[in-house]
Structure formats: structure tokens, C-alpha cells
User: Fold these one by one.
Assistant:
Number 1:
Amino acid sequence: MRIEKLDESTKKNLLADLLKRSPDNYGQYEAGVREILNEVKEKGDKAVFSYTEKFDKAKIDASNILVTEEEVKEAYGQVENSLLAIIRKSLKNIESYHAKQMQYSWFDSKPDGTILGQKVTALRRVGVYVPGGKAVYPSSVLMNIVPAKVAGVREIIMTTPPGADGKVNPVTLVAAKEAGATVVYKVGGAQAIAALAYGTESIPKVDKITGPGNIYVALAKKAVYGHVSIDSIAGPSEILVLADETANPRYVAADLLSQAEHDELASAILVTTSQELAQKVSLETDKFIKTLSRGEIIQKSLDNYGHILLADSLEAAIDTANEIASEHLEIVTKDPFTVMTKIRNAGAIFIGEYSSEPLGDYFAGPNHILPTNGTAKFFSPLSVDDFLKKSSIISYSREALEVVHLDIEKFAQAEQLTAHANSIKVRFDK
């Protein structure tokens, strides 16, 4: 990995470079995505089946688009008991963590008859998208479905692309059943997002769509926002390790590569105050790449978006981490908890040398669907909140309204909204 001196110029160029990976910069795909969305909106199932055959080479129709109980039972027979046990352990951790996020309705009453409050209601029906086809992402199944279940969502509609044989990977199906998906449909890509957003003969329209996907899925979610709600628009994976001379270079290198292996657009950055650590990490990454199965992808990722930044001070390193606002941030310093208090922007923060990023991907409990491309400055990880909506409660007695009615009328008149003023005034006309 290349080692660079951290200064304002380096930081500016790096931030500009990372933003090139944003879905906002993939305009060449938008027309194709828009065509798919319009086709599904107009033709429903027919378009979904056609695009599934075109992109996934699977012949899907109304008779087999829905995963059956028989298919789920078959999937359980194909999954090792040891893996099933691990899925259940992970599921328990994720449930326990997200249960602490739950919010409830509240009401505050006063002696004058005023009642103010907030009614918290779960969304009725949500769609969760899980990447599939050749890949297997049971962890994404759990991370999407569990917070929806904890929130109390009544219907959880999962979509995932089938293989060419028209089947969903058995591990994905088992994870969906364990997590509590209501139904699973064999459809992926932009056509799945369109089906969830608009509804088809087979797939019902949902209130919100969550889950990561490729660039087509990301652009489709962006385009349907407004017809439905979405969680966020996911970009390529990224990790930033903030380290000093106390860090183990072998651990740091391994963690950087854990994200670089996702794809060529993934970003892996080390910001350190130690020249020695920087050099050792660079050497360790070279050693690992030679032994890892996805070494070619990792190398391209590092060539494109891999950086080792040498900072003059820990404060400068922290400022840079906050500017980059990485999806995953590891803190491996002498006093990591103190450093953590100075971090404003990160999707997930991993503290200490044994808190490796894959812990968050699979097992610890916090959600791994995180803000990317600097959006951690204003977005949060997927949570129970994403599946709840809130309504304000306002109840006044005549006595309470009488105390403030002249104030309200005057306020409305100041805005030249006479009907507003009148709706209060009529209640006290003689």
C-alpha cells in the first residue's frame, strides 16, 4: 500500500477521490434503471419475469416466484447443523442489541386538561432486499429482518435474486426463516425494487425498502423514494483504521483487507502517527494478498482506493477520520476509549485490537447496514427506528384553550391566515 504524508492537500484529494464511488456519480446507469422501473410499473409481473430471465437466467413465473414451505424445508436439509447453530447465536445477539433501541408511545397530561404525547407505530409492511444469485449473504438477511421484527412490523417481504436453477441459496432461506420473514420472493436487481415500490400481481407494494445491493439496486432505491421510504443508498464498502505505534501491524493489515476484498471500489485507509507502523502494515498487506483467494480484487481495491496516511499528531488523525466519516472505523491506539469520545462521524466504531470489523458483520449484534460515502456525517446504521413512525398527540380542554386562544389568533393573523384564526375564534364567540 502507498504511504502518503497527511496534509490539507492530501486530505482534499482523498475526499474527492472517495466521492467518485458514490451512486450519484453513476449517471450512465440511470436511464437503464429508469427503463426497468417503468416497465415493472406498467407491466407488473410480466416485466419482473422477463428481467429475471434476462439478468439471472432463471425462468420464474407466478407459479414459482414465491418460495414455498417445501423449499424452506429442503433448505434446512442442506444446511449444516453447526452453521445453523451459529446463525441462531448471531440472531440472538442481534435481537438483544436491537431490543434496546425500541421506543414506545408516551403521554404527558397537565392539570388544565392538556394532553401532549407521541404515538409510536410500526410500519405495516416493509420490503427487505438481500443480494443473492451466486453470492450468499445470510448476515444481511438477519440485519434487515431482525430490527423490523423487534419494531413490530406485521409483514416483512423479502426479495432476493435466484440462481439460474430458479432456486434461492439454502443458507439464505434458512436465515430468512429463522429471522422471521413473512414471505420470500425470487427476484433481484432494480426489478425487485420496482416490484416492492409499485406492487405487481404477485408482490405487494410495501411502505419502506431496506437493504444493500449493487449499483442498479442503489439507483433504483433512489428513484422510487417518495413512492416508498428507503433506509439509505448504499455505496461500496469502506474501512478506516486509526492507529498509533502501539497497534499490531499484522492485525491492522488483515482488517484493512477484510473490506478491500468486497470489490474494486472498496476503500481501505490507515491513518497513523507512526512511520514504523505504516511501513510494517504496507509489508503485511503484500504478504496477505499472496495467500488470499480474492487477492486480485484486493489488489485492485488497494490500487484504486487504498491509502496509508502518516499524520503529524493524533489530533490531525482524528480530524481526518471525522472528515472521511467512514462506514467502519477501528481505533487501535494506546487509549482507544478516549479517542472514541472525539469521533463524531462513523457508521460503526470498533475499539481495541481484538474488535475486528468482521465481528460487526456477523456476530456482535449491532447492525452492519451502515452509512457509506461520507454519509455517516448525517446518517445512522439501520435500526429499529427505521421501522417505526411517530405521530404527535395533542388534546386540549376548553379551559386550556381559553387561556391561549388570543395568542393563537394573533399568531395566525400575523401570518395572514384568517381561517386559522377563525377556527380558534369560533369556539369562544358569544
Note: The chain is about 45% helix and 15% strand.
Number 2:
Amino acid sequence: MDSTAQRAPRPTGRTVAYDPSRPAPPLHVRAAAVLDAGWTGTSTVPSRGLYPHQWSWDSAFIAIGLRHVSPLRAQTELETLLAAQWADGRIPHIVFNPSVPLDAYFPSPDFWRSSAAGRAAGAPRTVQTSGIVQPPVHALAAWLVHLADPGLSRARGFLTRAYPRLAAWHRYLLHRRDLGGGGLVSVVHPWEQGMDNSPCWDRPLSRVTPAPARSFRRADLDHGSPEDRPTDLDYGRYVRLAADYRDRGYADGSGDFAVEDPAFNALLIASEYALARIARELGAAAPARQDRAERLTDALVERLWEPSAGMFLCRDVRAGELIPERGVSGLVPLLLPDLPRDLAATLVRTVCGPHFGLGGTTRLVPSYDLLGDAFDPHRYWRGPAWFNTNWLLERGLRLHGERGRADALRRGILHTAGASDFAEYVDPYTGQACGATGFGWTAALTLDLLHDRPAWDKDGVTAIKGEVRG
């Protein structure tokens, strides 16, 4: 996610007074309070004051948690995002709040210039957005939100209105973003994949000439320590890629950066299964969507599986080769129901092995290889553990019969979320809070795990495919 980070205070050895007359509120009450604090009336900001707009995949994860508090708010969350969709089908990664000052966040609306630069691609005229996208979790979120209160959903026509927009979103990705020609979606900017600063991007980014430092001002450094944030060199490359994409009218296909990412494509596959269920709910036939999900799974295995790494790797489309870096993105396909059994078993061994340490050296799964040269337990996406990726892995472990490991990871997520004050991300060894606290998707996914622990067995990808797996 392209968003500025506020560094949480590090432990200073101060004592905490124990007051038995004022017990801490239950975890679900605290998590709901975080979402209430971020609610704008139509959507939820990831962290008020630091992330003052609406982010695409944040809203999808937030809606999954909000459904346990208010199904109506969860539906509204997704409807607000979908209302900013471009005519070509893309769902932008940021929907800007016009009441927020331009200097509160960079890149701001005057950088993206969506209504002008994106006119040919059908950018909306009445709302300002970014021009790039984020992982397609939205159909999965919409289906789970529907299941929270089917009566309300049907009465409001929630799925009836959402379905054509979600279908157009998937068409855009499948038709405009198959830049490698192998059936998978490519991202054209690291911010699109959501794991902005991952070492997996270092090699393809090295070909990008950075924008001059004087041409932009990094608002993120107002809130966080430089050693926890992307370097000035990397940030200059991010800005260059975004500016070049904007200056091409947000046309796809000719940029310097194009990467097939396993997590992005796995989430598309999960959402294709969800769209199949939504179509059946609306009385339409859905075998083509289920078939497409299965074909995409085959393409994912064919193009991105690396047996020697024991996991999926990113593919640099411009260089025509896999990127030899182990990021958590390569574990996320564990959530797919049609993943071959031997690959699923290998992914479990990898996540529990020395590179990620789950159940051994780490509390939560880190964002990057513990043994990698670029590992840093605090620097943004180069080692810290994030709650959304751990939520996805908890679901994947449960789906493939690893209930003991899933239960242990669930306990670790809940404990760490509460102890860190719902941090944006944490040190994978200690659980120390990093980035913003009171973070939206951390609170939302905490609610989901608290209120719907068996959800993946009955409501998630397993049920989306219409099967029960042990």
C-alpha cells in the first residue's frame, strides 16, 4: 500500500500501572473503536491523520471486518470505492477526500491529475483518484459481506449493483494487464501490488531512472524514521514510474516496470471464485468464472512456481525471468482451493522453515526472507510482519487441513494485534509495533478472527468453490 507511515514509539522501559478497577476493554470492543474512529460516513480511512483518504485493498479488508459490526457500513464501504471506478474497469488505489489539504499526503490529487490525464481511460470527473490499482480482494469481500446479512443485502440490491462493477474490474485486469502473454496479471508499479518496498522489486526497479529529489517532497518522513521507510533512491523511482504512467494517459503496456506477482494473481483467483458464487446468487450461470479461476491457477503454477525455492516467485516480465527473492507474496497462493496438494504441502514447509520461521523463530510470518540479504525487521515490507498477509495465510493453512498451525497463527495474530495497539506492522521476532497504530485493516481482521474463526471452512474460498476440504 502506498501510504505514509507513523513510527510507533519503541519500548522505553516505562512501567505500566495496574488498575484493577478499570480493566482493559475486550479486544473486539477496542477493534470496533478503531474502525469507528476511522469512519468518515461513507468509508474508513486506514489511519486518521496519516492516511486521510480511502485506499482500495484496505477498504476490502476493512469491509470483511466491518460486516461483524455493521453489515450496512460494510456494504457502504465497498459501494463508495466502486463508485470511483474508471470506465475502463480499473478500481483506483486511492479515492481522495476533497476536504483534506493537498500537502497532507503525497502523491496528492494534483500529482495524479486523474480527471485530466485519465480522461481517455474513463476516469471519473466528479472525484479525484490515483491512476494505479491494488490487489483485487473486492469480490471476495463483497461475497463475505453479503453472507453477513443476506436479507439486508438482497433488500438493498447490494450484489445486483456491485456485480457488474466487479466483473468489469476483473475484465480490465485480465484483458489489459496480461503483459507477459501467459494469462497472468502484471502490476506496473510496486504500489499496485501493495507490498511497496519489498526486495522483490529491487531488480526491476534498478532499470528505472529516479525522479530528481527536488521534484517532490516526501511527506512520509514527517511521520516516520528514515531507517523504517524506503530510501530516497527507491522513492524517486516510485515517483518516476507513476509520473511516466500518468503522462502516457494511464495506458497500459509500455512502461519500464511489469511484474507478475503471485499474491496479486492469487487474490484475483479467489475473487473469481467469489464472483461465481455471486452470479449464482443472482440467478446467473457461473461455470465460465469457475473454469477461469482453475485456468488462472494452472497459469500461476506454470509461470511462477519455483521448486528450488519451495514457493512462488515474482516474474520480471521485461527481463523474462523469475526474481530470486523470497517474499511473503509467494506464500499467499496457499489460500487457493485448487492448488496441487504437493505444492500446498511444500508451501507449508517453507512458511514453517528457516526462511519464514512460523511456529519457531517468529511470532508472525515476516514480509521477507529472514535469511535474505535485504532483511530488516523494521523497514517497510522488507521484513516486518503485516496482519493482512498473516490473515490470508491463516485462512490458507486452515483450507489445506493445517488446523493446528492455523489455530496457533490465529492466536498469534490476535495477541499481537492487541498488544501492539493494532499496529500497521510489527517486528516479526518481538511483535514490537511499527508504523501507524490504530490501523484499520489490523482492527478489522482482528474482528473477523474473533467473530468468525471457522469462516474459511464455511464462507471463504472453500465454500466459494462449493467444496469441502479436510
Note: The two ends are 34 Å apart (CA to CA).
